[in-house]
Amino acid sequence: MTMPACPHLDTITSIKHPQRPACYACVEIGASWVHLRTCQQCGITLCCDSSPNQHASKHARASGHPVIASAQPGERWLYCYPDDAFAEY
Ligand SMILES: [Zn+2]
Ligand SMILES: [Zn+2]
Ligand SMILES: [Zn+2]
After folding, report:
1. Nearest ligand atom owner, CA of 62
2. What percent of the chain has pLDDT over 90?
3. How far apart, in whole angstroms, are the C-alpha atoms of residue 20 and residue 4?
């Protein structure tokens, strides 16, 4: 698999895993989610773009934190929003 140029994925040396399997923002508003992602800059776990509220990408845009990891059991990949780049680990 060829990887697009991304200066962010290279800086990830250890993966942040979710503290608990829930989207913090959805829990606050009583919403549900499809899949979970963990921000690799601040460690917050939020919901994916298939979820109604898309909290992870909203967080990435609002905070400027570029890289998330899948928080789904068995999935081992990172994604960079600004570069639209995937990496497996
Ligand atoms: Zn990047
Ligand atoms: Zn959410
Ligand atoms: Zn963050």
Report:
1. 3
2. 93
3. 31
